[in-house]
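Let us walk through a complete example step by step. Step one is to write down the protein sequence. Step two is to encode the small molecule, S-adenosylmethionine, as a SMILES string so that its atoms and bonds are unambiguous. Step three, shown after the inputs, is the structure prediction itself.
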Amino acid sequence: MSKAISPEEYRLFSDFLEDACGIVLGENKHYLVTSRLQRLMDELNIPSLSELVKRMGSAGGKSLQVRIIDAMTTNETLWFRDSHPFDILRNDIFPELSRERSRPLKIWSAACSSGQEPYTMSMVAQEYGMANPGKLARGVEILATDISKTVLEQARAATYDNMSLARGMSEERKLRYFRDLGNRQWELRKEIRERVRFTELNLMQSYLSLGKFDIIFCRNVLIYFSADLKRDIIGRLARALNPRGYLFLGSSESLAGHSDMFDMIRSGGAVYYRLKG
Ligand SMILES: C[S@@+](CC[C@H](N)C(=O)[O-])C[C@H]1O[C@@H](n2cnc3c(N)ncnc32)[C@H](O)[C@@H]1O
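Step three: the predicted structure of the complex.
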């Protein structure tokens, strides 16, 4: 960016970002804005943040807004992230919810990034089904959503390089669930992919069209939002759960002060939530 960001430009930009996707930049994140947007601005030959803000509001600005949101979201993720939630699925929730089922188990990964979280759930479902024949016989359906088109494209492609697999994927599972495409690229096998459906969704929008879920993972995204938005989203996640459905947040996130609709359950050093009722 050729010019320093003025306080007014910074305010306009942060207001846009919070309105569009809930992300609160806070004060003094000029460096973050600059570093995340530099490439886009160079590519589009946009000389300053004020020019960028101007173009976002002009005709054709919509596609620019999408690219800005893509650039500003933090998409950090890994396989079997924090491990506990997946142990809890395998050891507690799948056994409980596989009893007397007349329909598939429905799970929502509500900010799925490049797919590691929903595909990890699918691997756990696969392994649970193999170890417990006849259980979860109606299957597991996983809906995975994110606001970023770029990460959703990566997730749908289901092809990962050695470096991203090194982040949480054991050698044994890598060989079992991925096909070596050469050139350090590995393609996830169909049996794991086919349980997961990806769609674009901004968590600020309505979830009504998604239907109801038995389990929701909404991890490592609420931290970017204001307390009000967080409260609103938690209320709407609760309404997207079936009675006594389960909610998982990130390991540094909690419902404390945000919801009395859930019971908190502690297990193996982790915390998760069950809808009351
Ligand atoms: C840090 S990643 C977390 C990925 C995964 N849940 C995990 O814990 O590993 C946060 C994700 O939230 C997405 N995100 C940010 N704001 C969002 C919004 N308003 N609606 C939906 N997704 C959003 C980002 O695009 C990003 O992929």
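Step four is interpretation. Residues 21-23, 73-77, 81, 111, 113, 117, 146-148, 151, 202-204, 219-221, 250 surround S-adenosylmethionine (CB under 6 Å).
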